[in-house]
Every structure is written in structure tokens, then in C-alpha cells.
């Protein structure tokens, strides 16, 4: 089973990387870029075949390693 | 208009970060993680309101800055 995980900064947390990208896009001649937020996108290939068990495993992985839950949100999509 | 961009390594390109994450998950006691691929997830807030024009703009941004098209794929989703 495959899982897709998005890890994004929580609303209100400053995103210096996003700001840098927005600035670079502006200087590269792309006007009209109001804001950019950058996060992580992970694809996990799991041996588990049961969806509910896989979701619980990935949730635990996010809580322990993949996301810093103080400043980041995560979303899990099973495929 | 908002655009969501996923930038991922092309198939076959070695992903050292993904390998490191898979290894860390294994040592944290998560068996059954066959593979992990890590990519970038970007949310762009654009002033443009026309979908087609916005898609063309974001495509050009990906080609110029957001993705290294030699080793990376990108996908654009307008919201």
C-alpha cells in the first residue's frame, strides 16, 4: 500500500523559504505572486495491506519523525 | 487564485533523503517501510484570476525556478 503525506507549516508560522521563493520569482519577472508556502511531500511504500492499520502506522510515523507537530500540520492520503 | 505544486524526483533518480527517512523509520521501530520518496509541496497565492493564464505562469515558474527539470517532475493543481 502507498501513502502520500503532506507536511505543511501551521497557519501563522513564518515561512522564510516561502518568502525567499516569492522574492526570487518576483526578481525573475513573475509579478502577481502574493505568497508562497513550502512544505514536504512524501510517498511511502508500505508492506501493510490493511488501510486502517496503514493509516495508524503513518500517523505514528508523522508524530514521531516526519512532522514537527509544534509548528507543522500533516495530512495522510492512502492510495 | 491558489496553485498547488508537487515537485518530485523522476523515477530512477536516487533519493538519499528518502533512503535516510526510511532507515530512520526502521530504527524507530516501524517495520514494513519498503521505500520513501521525498519531494517539495508548494502553495502559491497568485493575483491572476484566469485559470489558463495562471497555469501558464506557474508552469513557467516551475521550469525556471521551482523544479530542476533534469531530475525532477512537477505537477500543478489550481484551486
From TrEMBL, chains A, B:
Part of the phosphoribosylformylglycinamidine synthase complex involved in the purines biosynthetic pathway. Catalyzes the ATP-dependent conversion of formylglycinamide ribonucleotide (FGAR) and glutamine to yield formylglycinamidine ribonucleotide (FGAM) and glutamate. The FGAM synthase complex is composed of three subunits. PurQ produces an ammonia molecule by converting glutamine to glutamate. PurL transfers the ammonia molecule to FGAR to form FGAM in an ATP-dependent manner. Its main location: cytoplasm. GO terms for cellular component: cytoplasm. Pathway: Purine metabolism; IMP biosynthesis via de novo pathway; 5-amino-1-(5-phospho-D-ribosyl)imidazole from N(2)-formyl-N(1)-(5-phospho-D-ribosyl)glycinamide: step 1/2. Its EC number is 6.3.5.3. Part of the FGAM synthase complex composed of 1 PurL, 1 PurQ and 2 PurS subunits. Keywords: ATP-binding, Cytoplasm, Ligase, Nucleotide-binding, Purine biosynthesis. The lineage of its organism: Bacteria, Pseudomonadati, Pseudomonadota, Alphaproteobacteria, Rhodospirillales. It is an enzyme of class 6 (ligase). It comes from the Bacteria. Belongs to the PurS family. It catalyses: N(2)-formyl-N(1)-(5-phospho-beta-D-ribosyl)glycinamide + L-glutamine + ATP + H2O = 2-formamido-N(1)-(5-O-phospho-beta-D-ribosyl)acetamidine + L-glutamate + ADP + phosphate + H(+). GO terms for biological process: 'de novo' IMP biosynthetic process. This is Phosphoribosylformylglycinamidine synthase subunit PurS. It is found in: Cytoplasm.
Amino acid at each position: 500500500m502507498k501513502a502520500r503525506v503532506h507536511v505543511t507549516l501551521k497557519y501563522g508560522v513564518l515561512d522564510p523559504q516561502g518568502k525567499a521563493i516569492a522574492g526570487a520569482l518576483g526578481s525573475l519577472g513573475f509579478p502577481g505572486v502574493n505568497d508562497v508556502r513550502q512544505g514536504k511531500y512524501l510517498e511511502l511504500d508500505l508492506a501493510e495491506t490493511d488501510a486502517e492499520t496503514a493509516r495508524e502506522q503513518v500517523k505514528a510515523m508523522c508524530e514521531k519523525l516526519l512532522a514537527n507537530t509544534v509548528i507543522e500540520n500533516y495530512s495522510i492520503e492512502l492510495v
